[in-house]
Amino acid sequence: MRNLLTLAMGASLLLLGQVSLAATDGARPLQSRPELCGRDLLAAIPARPANAPGGREFARQVWSLSGPVRDALIVTQLEAGNIPPFLRHLIPVTVRGETPHGAVHITVCVLPDYLAVGSDTDFLYVPLGLKAALAVAARFGDVLPTPKLVDAIYAASPVKLVPEPLTASDAMRSTAYVLRHTELIDLQRALSRQPLGTLTSGDKKDLVLTDRLWETPGRVAIYGWQRASGRPIQPLSTVHGERYADYSHGIRLVSRIVYVNGVARGMDDVLADSNLAPLLSREGRLRDVSARLATLAAGFGT
Length: 302
Fold this sequence. Notes:
With 302 residues, the protein is α+β, with helices and mostly antiparallel strands. It has helices at 2-12, 55-61, 67-79, 130-139, 147-156, 175-192, 212-215, 267-272, 277-280, 289-297; strands spanning 91-99, 102-110, 116-118, 123-125, 142-143, 159-160, 200-201, 205-207, 222-226, 232-237, 249-250, 254-255, 257-260, 263-266.
């Protein structure tokens, strides 16, 4: 799939004339101490099976499916390790702020891009409903980002892609749209000349962690899809039900282990700390995160 897309790249230059891919907006990545985000934090992801389908083949297998039925098959692939090598490392993103006790920096370890099924040369980005996304995050020891973290990841990303909205219709949830959007993102990345695995943003909206998930049960929270200015196309929204997923949604996992001034802490502890939580969440404290997320994920696959 990648070779065919590369051949099409020249013809796409005119269509993608507004693309701004590398770190051209003046944002300086707040990344530090990459050794903090070691591969051991992703040790729960199995090795990719030798016979695992590539992205295009998997798209063919789920072509007529959407919603929870497709989610279940996607989760099966992810939990079996059918994840590209470029998504098998975490990148540190550091946020800084002041607390009553002085200056603090918190380093969060994040996937370089959104979850995908397949190999480095043939992969498919995979949107998921809320329960499925939370099940995968829990399986791998991760959590979803908050909207504030989505913004921090965008600011830190050397590769900033231009959003590629497709025509709004009922087909937005189809696998055909998912595949088409993957191809458009792939063309943009090729133009950036940055390698796979470089921290990338702007290609998808995020499923996010917010108090609204508990204030309005049965809904999924989405946010992001930043333009070059850093302003998101999608404000924080819970308009869709928890089973909803369309081509524009992405799942970026964030490790539950964070580093406060270089010291390892649990994400739950930090989000429950009234002094530290505002560095990661505009809503301030988020309490009992793991227990609440487990409740939201309950029943997936049954």
